[in-house]
Fold:
Amino acid sequence: DADVTQTPRNRITKTGKRIMLECSQTKGHDRMYWYRQDPGLGLRLIYYSFDVKDINKGEISDGYSVSRQAQAKFSLSLESAIPNQTALYFCATSDVSPGTSGSMGYNEQFFGPGTRLTVL
Amino acid sequence: QQQVKQSPQSLIVQKGGISIINCAYENTAFDYFPWYQQFPGKGPALLIAIRPDVSEKKEGRFTISFNKSAKQFSLHIMDSQPGDSATYFCAASFSGSARQLTFGSGTQLTVLP
Structure:
Protein backbone atom coordinates (compact mmCIF):
# COMPACT_ATOMS: atom_id res chain seq x y z
CA ASP A 1 0.00 0.00 0.00
CA ALA A 2 1.19 3.50 -0.78
CA ASP A 3 0.41 4.52 2.81
CA VAL A 4 3.10 2.17 4.13
CA THR A 5 6.40 2.22 2.29
CA GLN A 6 9.47 0.08 2.75
CA THR A 7 13.01 0.61 1.53
CA PRO A 8 14.83 -1.06 -0.02
CA ARG A 9 12.49 -3.43 -1.84
CA ASN A 10 15.26 -5.89 -2.59
CA ARG A 11 18.65 -6.33 -0.97
CA ILE A 12 21.43 -8.84 -1.39
CA THR A 13 24.17 -8.78 1.21
CA LYS A 14 26.91 -10.94 2.63
CA THR A 15 27.21 -12.74 5.92
CA GLY A 16 28.40 -10.45 8.71
CA LYS A 17 27.22 -7.20 7.14
CA ARG A 18 24.99 -4.75 8.97
CA ILE A 19 21.69 -4.12 7.25
CA MET A 20 18.92 -1.62 7.94
CA LEU A 21 15.41 -1.90 6.56
CA GLU A 22 13.26 1.18 6.76
CA CYS A 23 9.53 1.66 7.04
CA SER A 24 7.54 4.87 6.75
CA GLN A 25 3.79 5.39 7.05
CA THR A 26 1.41 8.23 6.34
CA LYS A 27 -1.63 6.62 7.97
CA GLY A 28 -1.08 8.41 11.28
CA HIS A 29 -1.13 5.12 13.18
CA ASP A 30 0.62 4.74 16.50
CA ARG A 31 1.33 1.03 16.26
CA MET A 32 3.99 -0.39 13.96
CA TYR A 33 5.25 -3.93 13.46
CA TRP A 34 8.01 -5.87 11.75
CA TYR A 35 7.35 -9.39 10.47
CA ARG A 36 9.32 -11.90 8.47
CA GLN A 37 7.68 -14.29 6.04
CA ASP A 38 9.17 -17.67 5.22
CA PRO A 39 7.56 -20.34 3.02
CA GLY A 40 5.48 -22.71 5.12
CA LEU A 41 5.92 -20.64 8.27
CA GLY A 42 3.59 -17.75 7.61
CA LEU A 43 4.24 -14.37 9.15
CA ARG A 44 6.19 -14.20 12.38
CA LEU A 45 6.44 -11.09 14.53
CA ILE A 46 9.95 -9.72 15.12
CA TYR A 47 9.30 -6.47 17.00
CA TYR A 48 6.41 -4.12 17.58
CA SER A 49 6.02 -0.59 18.83
CA PHE A 50 2.92 1.09 20.24
CA ASP A 51 4.48 4.53 20.29
CA VAL A 52 7.90 6.18 20.00
CA LYS A 53 8.88 5.24 23.54
CA ASP A 54 7.34 1.76 23.57
CA ILE A 55 9.19 -1.06 21.79
CA ASN A 56 8.56 -4.72 22.41
CA LYS A 57 10.11 -7.99 21.32
CA GLY A 58 8.05 -10.36 19.27
CA GLU A 59 8.29 -14.09 18.70
CA ILE A 60 11.63 -14.06 16.88
CA SER A 61 13.64 -10.99 17.95
CA ASP A 62 17.07 -12.64 18.33
CA GLY A 63 19.55 -11.21 15.82
CA TYR A 64 17.40 -8.13 15.16
CA SER A 65 17.06 -4.67 16.63
CA VAL A 66 14.68 -1.79 15.90
CA SER A 67 14.47 1.96 16.19
CA ARG A 68 11.31 4.07 16.26
CA GLN A 69 12.60 7.42 15.10
CA ALA A 70 9.19 9.07 14.92
CA GLN A 71 5.55 8.10 14.87
CA ALA A 72 5.85 7.55 11.14
CA LYS A 73 9.19 5.72 10.99
CA PHE A 74 10.22 2.30 12.26
CA SER A 75 13.52 0.72 11.22
CA LEU A 76 14.71 -2.87 11.50
CA SER A 77 18.42 -3.66 11.76
CA LEU A 78 20.37 -6.84 11.35
CA GLU A 79 23.62 -6.14 13.16
CA SER A 80 25.48 -9.06 11.62
CA ALA A 81 23.45 -10.75 8.92
CA ILE A 82 23.45 -14.53 8.58
CA PRO A 83 22.07 -16.72 5.77
CA ASN A 84 19.06 -17.96 7.76
CA GLN A 85 17.85 -14.37 7.91
CA THR A 86 17.14 -14.60 4.19
CA ALA A 87 13.41 -13.90 4.02
CA LEU A 88 10.68 -11.49 3.01
CA TYR A 89 10.28 -8.72 5.60
CA PHE A 90 7.10 -6.75 6.11
CA CYS A 91 6.32 -3.65 8.05
CA ALA A 92 2.75 -3.09 9.21
CA THR A 93 0.79 -0.41 11.04
CA SER A 94 -2.44 -0.35 12.98
CA ASP A 95 -4.61 2.09 14.86
CA VAL A 96 -5.33 1.77 18.57
CA SER A 97 -9.07 1.89 17.97
CA PRO A 98 -10.65 -1.44 18.82
CA GLY A 99 -13.37 -1.09 16.27
CA THR A 100 -16.94 -2.22 16.76
CA SER A 101 -18.14 -5.72 17.47
CA GLY A 102 -18.14 -7.85 14.35
CA SER A 103 -16.43 -5.21 12.25
CA MET A 104 -13.27 -5.66 10.30
CA GLY A 105 -11.62 -2.78 12.10
CA TYR A 106 -10.44 -4.67 15.14
CA ASN A 107 -6.74 -3.84 15.09
CA GLU A 108 -6.65 -4.20 11.31
CA GLN A 109 -3.03 -4.18 10.25
CA PHE A 110 -1.92 -2.44 7.07
CA PHE A 111 1.14 -3.95 5.46
CA GLY A 112 3.85 -2.43 3.32
CA PRO A 113 4.97 -4.05 0.07
CA GLY A 114 7.81 -5.96 1.69
CA THR A 115 11.60 -6.16 1.40
CA ARG A 116 13.16 -9.27 -0.04
CA LEU A 117 16.47 -9.81 1.77
CA THR A 118 19.05 -12.35 0.66
CA VAL A 119 22.09 -13.04 2.85
CA LEU A 120 24.85 -14.90 1.04
CA GLN B 1 0.05 -21.67 23.47
CA GLN B 2 -0.78 -19.21 20.73
CA GLN B 3 -0.31 -21.41 17.68
CA VAL B 4 -2.72 -21.30 14.78
CA LYS B 5 -2.58 -24.28 12.42
CA GLN B 6 -3.64 -23.80 8.81
CA SER B 7 -4.35 -26.31 6.05
CA PRO B 8 -3.90 -27.10 3.24
CA GLN B 9 -0.55 -25.57 2.34
CA SER B 10 -1.62 -25.31 -1.29
CA LEU B 11 -4.92 -25.63 -3.10
CA ILE B 12 -5.82 -25.83 -6.77
CA VAL B 13 -9.42 -25.20 -7.76
CA GLN B 14 -11.20 -24.90 -11.08
CA LYS B 15 -12.89 -21.62 -11.96
CA GLY B 16 -16.37 -21.58 -10.47
CA GLY B 17 -15.52 -24.08 -7.76
CA ILE B 18 -15.49 -23.67 -4.01
CA SER B 19 -12.20 -23.09 -2.20
CA ILE B 20 -12.03 -24.09 1.45
CA ILE B 21 -9.17 -23.28 3.80
CA ASN B 22 -9.17 -24.47 7.39
CA CYS B 23 -7.58 -23.20 10.59
CA ALA B 24 -7.48 -24.52 14.14
CA TYR B 25 -6.34 -22.82 17.31
CA GLU B 26 -5.49 -23.83 20.86
CA ASN B 27 -5.77 -20.66 22.93
CA THR B 28 -9.38 -20.22 24.03
CA ALA B 29 -8.64 -16.57 24.84
CA PHE B 30 -8.56 -15.72 21.13
CA ASP B 31 -11.55 -13.53 20.33
CA TYR B 32 -10.86 -12.13 16.89
CA PHE B 33 -10.18 -14.16 13.76
CA PRO B 34 -9.21 -12.31 10.57
CA TRP B 35 -8.20 -13.63 7.19
CA TYR B 36 -5.56 -11.84 5.16
CA GLN B 37 -5.08 -12.09 1.40
CA GLN B 38 -1.68 -11.62 -0.22
CA PHE B 39 -1.04 -11.24 -3.95
CA PRO B 40 2.44 -11.87 -5.36
CA GLY B 41 4.76 -8.94 -4.73
CA LYS B 42 2.34 -7.30 -2.30
CA GLY B 43 1.86 -7.20 1.43
CA PRO B 44 -1.07 -9.02 3.04
CA ALA B 45 -4.36 -7.16 3.28
CA LEU B 46 -7.35 -7.81 5.50
CA LEU B 47 -10.04 -9.73 3.63
CA ILE B 48 -12.68 -10.62 6.19
CA ALA B 49 -12.84 -11.17 9.94
CA ILE B 50 -15.12 -12.70 12.56
CA ARG B 51 -15.72 -12.50 16.29
CA PRO B 52 -16.75 -15.71 18.14
CA ASP B 53 -20.20 -14.36 19.01
CA VAL B 54 -21.36 -15.39 15.53
CA SER B 55 -20.92 -18.69 13.67
CA GLU B 56 -20.72 -17.27 10.18
CA LYS B 57 -19.72 -14.04 8.45
CA LYS B 58 -20.33 -13.50 4.76
CA GLU B 59 -19.04 -10.78 2.49
CA GLY B 60 -19.75 -11.31 -1.16
CA ARG B 61 -18.24 -14.61 -2.26
CA PHE B 62 -16.17 -14.94 0.92
CA THR B 63 -17.55 -16.62 4.05
CA ILE B 64 -15.96 -17.41 7.39
CA SER B 65 -17.43 -20.35 9.28
CA PHE B 66 -16.59 -20.49 12.97
CA ASN B 67 -16.91 -23.47 15.31
CA LYS B 68 -16.11 -22.35 18.84
CA SER B 69 -16.46 -25.76 20.48
CA ALA B 70 -14.07 -27.35 17.98
CA LYS B 71 -11.76 -24.30 18.03
CA GLN B 72 -11.79 -24.21 14.26
CA PHE B 73 -12.62 -21.66 11.61
CA SER B 74 -12.55 -21.78 7.86
CA LEU B 75 -12.66 -19.56 4.81
CA HIS B 76 -14.96 -20.49 1.96
CA ILE B 77 -14.59 -18.83 -1.43
CA MET B 78 -17.65 -19.45 -3.57
CA ASP B 79 -17.51 -19.29 -7.37
CA SER B 80 -13.72 -19.06 -7.22
CA GLN B 81 -12.14 -16.88 -9.91
CA PRO B 82 -8.60 -16.74 -11.33
CA GLY B 83 -8.29 -13.31 -9.70
CA ASP B 84 -8.67 -15.01 -6.31
CA SER B 85 -5.32 -16.75 -6.85
CA ALA B 86 -3.26 -15.57 -3.90
CA THR B 87 -1.87 -16.68 -0.57
CA TYR B 88 -4.36 -16.65 2.29
CA PHE B 89 -3.44 -16.38 5.95
CA CYS B 90 -5.72 -17.00 8.88
CA ALA B 91 -4.88 -15.23 12.11
CA ALA B 92 -6.09 -14.81 15.66
CA SER B 93 -5.70 -12.33 18.48
CA PHE B 94 -6.96 -11.53 21.97
CA SER B 95 -6.89 -8.43 24.12
CA GLY B 96 -4.39 -9.88 26.59
CA SER B 97 -1.77 -10.01 23.86
CA ALA B 98 -2.25 -6.32 23.07
CA ARG B 99 -4.08 -7.49 19.97
CA GLN B 100 -0.98 -9.02 18.39
CA LEU B 101 -1.89 -11.24 15.48
CA THR B 102 -0.79 -14.87 15.46
CA PHE B 103 -0.77 -16.02 11.86
CA GLY B 104 -1.27 -19.43 10.32
CA SER B 105 1.30 -20.79 7.89
CA GLY B 106 -0.58 -19.70 4.77
CA THR B 107 -2.36 -21.40 1.87
CA GLN B 108 -1.38 -20.76 -1.71
CA LEU B 109 -4.58 -20.84 -3.77
CA THR B 110 -4.50 -21.28 -7.53
CA VAL B 111 -7.74 -20.97 -9.46
CA LEU B 112 -7.47 -22.45 -12.92
CA PRO B 113 -9.32 -20.69 -15.78
In short: Chain A is about 0% helix and 55% strand. Confidence is low (pLDDT under 50) at residues 100-105 of chain A. The CA atoms of residues 14 and 120 of chain A lie 5 Å apart. Chain A touches chain B through 28 residues (CB under 8 Å).
